[in-house]
TrEMBL record:
Keywords: Cytoplasm, Methyltransferase, S-adenosyl-L-methionine, Transferase, tRNA processing. This is tRNA (guanine-N(1)-)-methyltransferase. Pfam families: tRNA_m1G_MT. The gene is trmD. PANTHER family: TRNA (GUANINE-N(1)-)-METHYLTRANSFERASE (PTHR46417).
């Protein structure tokens, strides 16, 4: 996968893209990154990328021409049209399902904006997706794009040591992930659930499913409304509700 990031502050990505899983993903040639300062593509001699909004109002608006030029440059020669993603509080809320969808693409372009907003022609004629991390506003799109890049890249084949790690993540199954324990079996008087020490893999899977349902019911009951539950899962939910 090729990921291009257009930002006015490319130095913000130095540490993030060159450590941990993202660094390993590049070393394994699962992904390549290009971070570009889109000021370079302004046709203004002062490399100005914003201007006052027509009709008046507070703040500055990003001009269309630097971003259209930058996207054309970073996608030149691409065999398939890229997904061009605008980081925006007005966008679709980012989810694990969206991460899985984007992980199937060959080329992604992230636009990180600043100021009051974007010229509407960028939305209408350049981008394919508008994404938001949630109902809050950040200073710019850089931090949001970092989070989404990390979420997508870890799903690429060969990036995580164990393929099941991403498959069993919270949200990938439609449920929150079950609790985890490791050695020692008892710490400060607190013991690991005995079923996990039993060696009975069937019972362990049953326990994990029940714990996932319990955690989802307690913390994110809204997720259960969107999930098609099996008869056994429905029985577990009813039992958990009766205990509450």
């Amino acid at each position: 996968m090729n990921i291009s990031i257009l930002s006015l502050f490319p130095e913000m990505f130095e540490g993030v893209l060159h450590t941990s899983i993202l660094k390993k993903a590049q070393e394994n040639e699962a992904v390549s990154f290009t971070v570009t300062d889109f000021r370079e593509y302004s046709e203004n001699k002062h490399h100005k990328v914003d201007d006052y909004p027509y009709g008046g109002g507070a703040g500055m608006v990003l001009k269309p021409e630097p971003l259209f030029n930058a996207v054309a440059a970073v996608t030149e020669g691409a065999k398939k049209p890229p997904r061009v993603i605008l980081m925006c509080p007005q966008g679709e809320r980012f989810t694990q399902a969206k991460a899985e969808e984007l992980a199937l693409e060959e080329n992604l372009v992230f636009i990180c904006g600043h100021y009051e907003g974007y010229d509407e022609r960028i939305r209408e004629h350049l981008v394919t997706d508008e994404l938001s991390l949630g109902d809050f506003v950040l200073t710019g799109g850089e931090i949001a794009s970092m989070a989404i890049v990390d979420s997508v890249v870890r799903l690429l084949p060969g990036v995580l040591g164990n393929h099941a790690s991403s498959v069993e993540d919270s949200f990938s199954t439609g449920l929150l992930e079950h609790p985890h324990y490791t050695r020692p079996a008892t710490y400060d008087g607190h013991a690991v659930p005995s079923v996990l020490l039993s060696g009975n893999h069937g019972e362990i899977e049953k326990w994990r499913m029940e714990q996932s349902l319990k955690r989802t019911l307690e913390r994110r009951p809204d997720m259960l409304d969107e999930l098609t539950l099996s008869p056994e899962q429905k029985k577990i939910i009813e039992r958990l509700k009766s205990k509450r």
